[in-house]
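tool_log.txt
---
The assistant was asked to compare two proteins side by side. It first ran the structure predictor on the initial sequence, then on the second. Raw inputs and outputs are pasted verbatim so the downstream comparison step can read them without reformatting.
(1)
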Amino acid sequence: MDMEDRSHSGKIYVIGIGPGDGLMMTGQAVEALRSCDVVAGYKVYIDLIRDVIAGKEVIESGMRQEIDRCEKSLKLAKDGKIVALVCSGDAGVYGMASPMLEIAEREGFSDVEIIPGVTAALSGAAMLGAPIGHDFCVISLSDLLTPWDLIKKRIRLACEADLCIVLYNPASRNRSEYLKKACEVMLTILPAARPCGYAKNIGRSMSKTGVCALSELGDIDADMTTTVFVGNSRTYISGCRLITPRGYTIK
């Protein structure tokens, strides 16, 4: 990535800023932010990087305005600006990379670079120990863009495949029972004692973790800042840590 190439055609960086702690943002992301003219993003995420982008033009907007942010970023880039479109975690994991690339492709604009970030599956796992030490999948419980029946199918198949499962967006004000519903699906396949864990407010103040059995998981105080981990058949709890061995071979 050549940060000094400020061609008249403009450029868009789609940047995953990680969980919020500046120490957990990659050096590549910081460098891209410092090189840009304009930063666009959801206000909550903009607030997390104010110190890095001081003096930059900023475009802030609320939730569910992702497409509008992409379109504004594209217009600015076409006007010759270097634009940073930011999101939490990793830009390619439920982030802004795909909508920005789709819109840019539609408009014939190709100078879009994706800057990776630390997604919650990784940062939350580090807080818990090693819950995804073997094959795992990530499933969002938000049915805003995915039908609930399809989400349930993916949960069932992940359980049948003995994958470690990471659940994003486990609950919100309008979806307070979704984690409990997901647990009901898992309990039709997995044992009630299956080790689980969660990480909350990753990389921010008041962060916390917990471990429990699958039978207890549906009752945790979960919200949109919570990332949930369900172990495979080899996962075990050691104190406050959730550990999944790297393989199935017993030595």
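(2)
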Amino acid sequence: MLANNYPYFTKDELLFIEKKHGHIAKNRILDYETMLKSLMPQSKSKQLMKINFYLNQLPTKIDIIDNKRADYWETPKEFLTYGSGDCEDYAIIKYFTLLKLGFSKDKLFMTTAYEKYSGQYHMILSYFETLNKPPLVLDNLSFEILDLRKRVDLKPVKFINPTGTYKLDEDNHLVKIAEEHPKFNELLQRVEREG
């Protein structure tokens, strides 16, 4: 049994998606659901690895192409329907997929980071497997999951989840810097409306 039902697609939603976006979009969603069920009996480390690998196979696309606006955070339902997204969209779908598999929301953080080689800001998903140790990084730029210390290309800026916005101190403690993150809250409201 999956811990959290979202994202869940009703038969009517799947029919609508097939009519509007084609059978490839519908089949992608059905494949995602089948893959999740196959991961249920596996260890957390295998689930992390397989989710990161599976979702990273979907193509990247900048926001303006699918959503006609810059810096739009797709819900998991939108991401699976379109079949592509940018870095924050991968982090979001991984976040909700891991929640669905029973991972604790207290250990998962959407993370903005400065990517040193490109000189751009980037978003990843951080999983704090053990408190006060560097998190594991799920990144659409890498099929390998490494702890943050080994990702010398990334300098983390903010760690975001429903409990607030944090920074990481030199001892790998999360220090709260804000009670919420407006963009993340807006995403959660859209997710709630989608049901």
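---
observation on (2): The CA atoms of residues 72 and 150 lie 29 Å apart. DSSP finds seven helices and seven strands in the chain.
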